[in-house]
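User: I'm curious what two different proteins look like when written out as structure tokens. Can you demonstrate?

Assistant: Sure. I'll show them one after the other, since each token string lines up with its own sequence. Here's the first protein:
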Amino acid sequence: QVQLVESGGGLVQPGDSLRLSCVASGRSLSGCGMAWFRQAPGKEREFVSGIRWPGGSTVYTNSVKGRFTISRDNAKNTVYLQMNNLKPEDTAVYYCAVGVGTRWPPGDYWGQGTQVTVSS
């Protein structure tokens, strides 16, 4: 059984930065695609960013391009989302997702979510 635990969310002001982490246990993230999704109140869950497997190419939704960076550390079995220049519209619960093999977007396993609130 794979467990994903997100952390790093919080309350920040517009323009601030946060780094989200997602630690996996139960299996290695090698051979898996990984992604971050988010869900704002009253809205559907949306894809934010992902790392494909194999190859490691990264994908971003247009609204976060140039501000967010996804990365992975296989040795730590962890995927990160560096979020810079945060905007109020980035407020949401952020979820980590892992997909085995080339399945895209990843969605075999999900974390419990971490709240990000951007407000002045």
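Here's a second, unrelated protein for contrast:
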Amino acid sequence: QVQLEESGGGLVQAGGSLRLSCAASGSIFSINAMGWYRQAPGKQRVLVALITSGGSTNYADSVKGRFTISRDNAKNTVYTVYLQMDSLKPDDTAAYYCNSIPGVPWGQGTQVTVSS
């Protein structure tokens, strides 16, 4: 099974940038794609960015042009996916999670807070 660990969140002012990292370990050969999700307080968890094993990317309209998903080629048994977040807005405040496709148990996530 794949284990996930997110990092890189924090507090940033509107207009600032953050880079999130997701380390996937374990049965990484089973990963077809990786996604970044976010969950704001009182709201459902939603997919914001996706990268396939072939390198294709897709973004939610709300982050298109501001967020960039990328990945490192798997090294040993760790596969790392990044989310570069630029021009951050207060509406981007949420807990951010990564997950693989097919999905596995969620990690702890990393909190992003954008102040106005």
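A detail about the second structure: The longest strand covers residues 18-26.
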